[in-house]
Design brief:
Layout: H1 8-16, E1 21-25, E2 31-32, E3 47-51, E4 55-64, H2 69-73, E5 82-89, E6 94-100, E7 115-123, E8 130-137
Parallel strand pairs: 6-8
Antiparallel strand pairs: 1-2, 1-3, 4-5, 4-7, 5-6, 7-8
Length: 139
């Protein structure tokens, strides 16, 4: 267990399989998202992968007009801002991600507490292909 690939690379491999995975400490039962190689609760390295349910609520957000290089490549920028937010999953864990299905031109219309569901966006091609975690508003 202590030798599992609890890294960004391991997390990304699961995203490529369209799975939202975190870690769970086999000693104290604490779950972590994003995954960690060491439990911050009891300091054990005895962890295992666990799949997280993809449903949650939007707890915080910002609209981003000055995009990173990766977001510019995806088509975002001053003229096409995006929403980045914090999602609290049903199990209480939170993660930051791109938020889709919101009107970024009217941030006042984006509501904290809105239900969201994880989606997996494919970007790039061939050996540059990457899967990005995002959440989309649900009715």
């Amino acid at each position: 267990m202590g030798n599992a690939n609890f890294t960004k690379q391991g997390f990304s491999q699961h995203l490529a399989e369209h799975k939202l995975m975190g870690t769970e400490c086999t000693v104290c039962g604490t779950q972590h998202l994003p995954p960690r190689p060491l439990c911050p609760n009891c300091f054990s390295n005895e962890l295992r992968w666990v799949e997280m349910k993809p449903h949650g609520t939007l707890t915080a957000f910002t609209t981003v007009h000055i995009a990173s290089s990766a977001m510019i490549e995806a088509g975002y920028g001053r003229e096409n801002p995006h929403c980045s937010g914090i999602v609290q999953l049903e199990n209480g864990l939170s993660i930051s991600a791109l938020i889709l299905g919101v009107d970024v031109s009217d941030p006042a219309s984006i509501k904290i507490g809105s239900p969201v569901e994880a989606i997996f966006l494919e970007r790039g091609e061939d050996d540059q292909k990457e899967t990005i975690l995002a959440f989309e508003l649900t009715p």
